[in-house]
Write a structure and sequence with these properties.
The protein is mostly helical and about 100 residues long. The protein contains 2 helices and 2 strands.
């Protein structure tokens, strides 16, 4: 057996490539897991802030109490008078 046959450089390169591919695949998977964790954390934070805001609004509405009813607009009644229709007794002005 010669020295070139004893040291197989192709096998060493193939092993090195396999190790690098495994490291790269592990890094990509870890990056995906970290990204998913951060997105989940952000969604939970948004949900918590929304829930806190809704609770604050509910408490504010309870403390404020009922508002007084808004005044209804004045209802005008139209009556037929001697010179046509009038509203609340106002007579149309006579033009000279």
């Amino acid at each position: 057996m010669t020295q070139t046959e004893a040291f197989n450089s192709h096998g060493l390169m193939a092993a090195t490539r396999a190790v690098l591919a495994a490291l790269l695949a592990g890094a990509v998977i870890a990056l995906g897991v970290i990204l998913a964790a951060f997105l989940t954390m952000a969604a939970l934070a948004v949900a918590a802030v929304s829930l806190a805001g809704a609770g604050a609004w509910w408490l504010y509405a309870k403390v404020r109490g009922r508002r007084p009813a808004r005044r209804d607009p004045q209802v005008l009644e139209a009556h037929r008078g001697p010179h046509g229709w009038t509203v609340d007794g106002d007579q149309p002005t006579k033009s000279a």
